[in-house]
Amino acid sequence: MAFGQSAGPPASAREIAELAELLRQAGYDSFREARHPFDLNQRQAGGKFTRDEADGLIERLTAAAAIAGAQDGSPGGSPEGGSTDPSAGPERAQLPKPARPTSRPRRPTPEPVADGASLAAVPDEVLADELARRGWMCVPPS
């Protein structure tokens, strides 16, 4: 697969039009404008989606519209927050970010040490983990 090419059949014109309308209702004029808030890549920001990508984004946008409607108290309400005043400006829908796999498990962050407290009370492993998290190399003494 070449750089910038999609990995699947392209989305239909109907799906692209539906995506554009849902993004417009969420307060974005174009795919490019919605690129960063929706984690779209350059190809998607140009309006080119695979069927799977389009279906996933349509699901996210309709779920956000349903959540916004539930918060307004109206069933299936508009993502603009129920405002019918065009001068009020569209509010941007807050969508849940897709879960991204991490290469390593996250460690719990240790509690910060109070000013004037001694680091001698902090266990060596906790101190080494905190220093490594901040970019330091920790080697045990020989």
What key attributes describe this structure?
single chain, mainly alpha, 0% strand, 4 helices, 142 residues
Beta-strand residue fraction = under 5%
Biggest sheet: strands, sense, closure? none
Count up the helices: 4
Q: What best-fitting shape do the alpha-carbon axes yield?
A: elongated
**What is the overall pLDDT average?**
75
Count of strand segments: 0
SSE string, helices as H and strands as E = HHHH
Termini gap: 50 Å
Instruction: State the share of residues found in helices, binned by percent.
Output: 25-40%
Detail the poorly predicted runs.
76-90
* Class derived from helix and strand content: mainly alpha
Rg calc: 23 Å
Give your account of this protein's structure.
- The chain has 142 residues and is mainly alpha-helical.
- 35% of the residues lie in helices and 0% in strands.
- The protein is built from 4 helices and no strands.
- The chain has helices spanning 13-25, 42-45, 51-72, 124-133.
- It starts with 12 loop residues before the first helix and ends in a 9-residue tail after the last helix.
Tell me briefly what this model is.
This protein is mostly helical and 142 residues long. Helices cover 35% and strands 0% of the residues.
Topology:
Elements: H1 13-25, H2 42-45, H3 51-72, H4 124-133
